[in-house]
Specification:
The complex is a heterodimer of chains A (about 450) and B (about 130). Chain A is α+β, with helices and mostly antiparallel strands and about 450 residues long. Helix content of chain A is about 20%, strand content about 30%. In chain B, helix 1 runs antiparallel to helix 2 and helix 3 (about 90-100) packs across helix 4. Classes of the chains: A alpha+beta (about 450), B mainly alpha (about 130).
Chain lengths: ~450, ~130
């Protein structure tokens, strides 16, 4: 064995003692290293929440934002048959999880509380809202009549001549059925050939504009307009037309859900906000596609209000478009709801926006277990839920829904995700490492 | 006032501790280097399981103990000249790769120039601090 301190000579009996101690030191390090390697290859990820200090930054388990939960729940008070929902976003494939709850000493027994776990994206767990209609500015033709979506309402051109007199190109009207029109509320008919309805698009010089409240809102670039609509939907006008309306200083941007790159960052653009995506892993884990990223310049980005970094444990922002691969239905995230696009014609108008793929069947798959009281520590309940069947599901968020068997006061909740030590998971670790290396060195 | 007498340290056993501290320092430094390489290639792969401070703190504590024991028992070494250190090429290569890896977002030539300049400054600093004045 090599000696790092050869200069210090020890007597024989001391040298023997030193060598024995050195052997144990190396053995200790070897065991420690193997323990850490084991944790890296077969990770164990824990999340916890203390109800006594709900706002503590040490809390890693979140009360779900998918459903509104009563204020009392945030303090740990639950009633019989009441739901408490958590969300956790561990990265990896897990064989099982242990859910642990600690109640206050005077709380009722919560043994038998049922726990249901589902896996998908957190935003896809939002309750389903009303179906989405056509977007403002969309030009439609149905049953011989022309329409425009203006101010969120469906407005009919009272006769076909007005369409021509106002300068709309009849080719740019989308042919739809009357049934497709039911998703937008009805507005007043357009009867005046001299007044353009709100949300009409104009192309003046190199700039596209949208009319709103007697003001022309310029698009920040032609690319921004074309990310939403076809160029034919804008009425071509000359510069004199700009004198008819006030020009707004607010610029319009790209279609919601656009993934834009301005080196070295990638941003999710939606509703005048830009979300810098924290890293390549977040980008991939949130289901985004590198091919959907477009290059933008700093002027285009500057119209957006920059938000805090978008990390993998945050739900997808408003404006995200999901495509359910099971039912082929699109959903748009808006105000903590997922709003379906039920009409094919409406879906077609969103075809320029790149969706995040989800699977409704997988998101409805439930793994369950029931809480049992443990001998030690006191007032603690736990249960194990097998997660093997969810390993290949789309989405990284686990929704943990507890339905309480009794009134109770919860002090602490925790969930630990375990990776089984088997060959498959070892290979999954190697495969994940390879993927991460590729992402790290090629993107 | 009564001042309790501190136990007299047996020099032989302290020397064993001193030698073991060097071994522990070597093992921790090796672990730290592997941690740096792994983190450089895959950020978070180790630090999400074990904090850097849990490795750096023991390294610093061992350094302090080695210095204290060395002073107490007057154990001094003449540090080898940097040019004669056999570890030097390995350390330079390792530093070169780690620095280069952390600057991947830079253009290739920018990266090379920054890394070489940094290494040169490190060597110069080492010589100024550790090389004999004459």
């Amino acid at each position: 064995m090599f000696d790092l301190t050869e200069e210090i000579k020890l007597e024989n009996y001391l040298r023997k003692k030193y060598l024995i101690a050195k052997f144990f030191l190396y053995l200790f390090f070897l065991i420690g290293t193997l323990f850490i390697l084991n944790r890296i290859i077969f990770p164990l990820i824990s999340f916890s929440l203390s109800f006594d200090n709900i706002n503590s930054p040490k809390n890693t388990l979140d009360l779900s934002s998918t459903m509104s939960q009563a204020e009392a729940i945030k303090k740990g008070f639950v009633k019989n048959n009441e739901d408490m929902i958590f969300t956790a976003s561990p990265l990896g494939n897990f064989s099982y999880s242990t859910i642990k709850l600690k109640t206050s000493k005077d709380s009722e027994n919560i043994e038998g509380t049922s726990i249901k776990i589902r896996r998908s994206y957190e935003a896809f767990f939002y309750p389903t809202g009303d179906p989405v209609g056509f977007r403002n500015g969309t030009l439609l033709f149905a049953n011989g009549s022309y329409y425009i979506i203006s101010g969120d309402a469906l407005r009919k051109f009272s006769n076909n001549n007005i369409v021509e007199q106002l300068g709309y190109s009849k080719d740019s009207f989308l042919n739809v059925s009357l049934d497709d029109l039911k998703y937008n509320k009805n507005g007043a008919d357009i009867t005046d050939a001299n007044i353009y309805p709100d949300d009409t698009f104009f192309n003046i010089g190199d700039t596209y504009y949208q009319l709103k409240n007697r003001q022309l809102f310029p698009f920040v670039s032609a690319g921004a307009f074309l990310s939403k609509f076809e160029s034919g939907q804008a009425i071509i006008k000359n510069d004199d037309f700009l004198n008819r309306y006030k020009i707004s200083e607010t610029y319009l941007g790209f279609t919601d859900g656009t993934l834009a790159s301005l080196a070295p960052s990638v941003f999710f653009l939606s509703e005048e906000k830009s979300y810098p995506i924290s890293n390549a892993e977040t980008f991939v884990k949130k289901g985004f596609n590198w091919d959907d990223v477009i290059q933008i310049n700093s002027e285009e980005l500057s119209i957006y209000k920059k938000q805090k970094q978008f990390t993998y444990n945050q739900p997808h922002p408003d404006g995200t478009l999901f495509l359910d691969r099971k039912t082929n239905t699109y959903f748009i995230i808006k105000d903590k709801q997922k709003r379906p696009i039920e009409s094919l014609a409406v879906a077609k108008t969103y075809s320029k926006q790149k969706p995040v793929i989800v699977d409704s069947e997988e998101s409805e798959t439930i793994v369950s277990c029931q809480l049992k009281k443990v001998f030690f520590p006191k007032n603690t309940y736990e249960c194990d839920a097998m997660l093997n069947s969810m390993n290949n599901f789309i989405g990284i968020d686990f929704q943990i829904d507890l339905k309480f068997a009794n009134n109770a006061k919860i002090n602490n909740a925790s969930i630990t995700f375990f990776t089984a030590k088997n060959f498959d998971n070892f290979m999954a670790f190697l495969s994940g490492t390879k993927t991460s290396l590729i992402i790290n060195y090629t993107k | 006032m009564y001042i309790p007498k501190l136990p007299v340290l047996n020099k032989n056993y302290v020397l064993i501790v001193y030698k073991l501290l060097h071994d522990a320092l070597f093992l921790l430094l090796m672990f730290f280097i592997f941690m740096l390489i792994a983190e450089g290639a895959l950020p978070g792969v180790v630090s999400s399981h074990i904090s850097f401070i849990l490795v750096i703190l023991p390294i610093l504590l061992i350094f302090i103990f080695i210095i204290l024991i060395g002073k107490k028992f007057d154990l001094t070494y003449t540090s080898p000249a940097i040019k004669k250190n056999r570890l030097l090429p390995v350390l330079i290569l390792l530093t070169f790769l780690l620095l280069g890896n952390s600057l991947l977002k830079f253009a290739f030539w920018e990266n090379i120039i920054i890394v070489i300049s940094t290494l040169f400054l490190f060597l110069l600093l080492y010589q100024i601090i550790f090389e004999p004045k004459d």
